[in-house]
Amino acid sequence: MALAYDPLFITSDKSPIDIASPPPPPSSMILTQDELKRIAAYKAVDFVKSGMVLGLGTGSTARHAVDRIGELLRQGKLENIVGIPTSEKTEEQALSSASLSPTSTRIPSSTSPSTAPTRSTREAPVGRREGEAFVTDNGNYIVDMYLEKDMGDLRSVSDEILRLPGVVEHGMFLDMASTVIIAGELGVRIKNKHSSCC
């Protein structure tokens, strides 16, 4: 699993709450990408406290986080969580599994319906229901853009995607996170953004 290094983040092993995370796997075990995503998602849920309002993302890592939140709600370890989903699919999952109140790389992207017939073969509609493309609350389609090689510089990839005709936005949230959680062969790392104030 290759990740771009960002010097704005520093490593920290501190977790703000004591909800148990899954233990790291034995060093001889090779994990799949989905297993690493689950480990990172569970670690992210360690930051969730009762009474929080949570933005619920879209994608496989978010799916694992929503499942974990649901498990903790059912166990009574979390309560009064309000989830704000980014898609109908995430909302359905949150309502059903979490009981929340309302080998290529793929990037979910929002595209204008007027460009749907001319979309590139690099894009594939996601979230289909009975053969229909997934439509956002704004009436845009959500498509997965498949990249054939390593993303490299994320800002360049972001700019390139946003320049594609009809693309409104994508699922890369650059410069918005203060903490990132990375699961890899050596375990879980938590990186916090340097504060430029104080």
How would you explain this protein's 3D organization?
The chain has 198 residues and is of the alpha+beta class. Among the domains are: 31-102, Rossmann fold; 105-170, 2-Layer Sandwich (Alpha-Beta Plaits), CATH 3.30.70. Helix content is 25%, strand content 23%. The protein contains 4 helices and 9 strands, in the order βαβαβαβββαβββ. It has helices at residues 33-45, 60-74, 88-98, 154-163; strands at residues 9-12, 53-56, 82-85, 105-111, 123-125, 141-147, 167-170, 179-184, 187-193. The protein has a 4-stranded antiparallel β-sheet with strand order 5-6-4-7, covered by helices on one side. A 3-stranded antiparallel β-sheet has the order 1-9-8. Strand 2 (53-56), helix 2 (60-74) and strand 3 (82-85) form a beta-alpha-beta unit. Helix 1 (33-45) crosses helix 2 and helix 2 (60-74) runs parallel beside helix 3. The longest helix has 15 residues, at 60-74. The model is unreliable at 1-19 and 117-130 (pLDDT under 50).
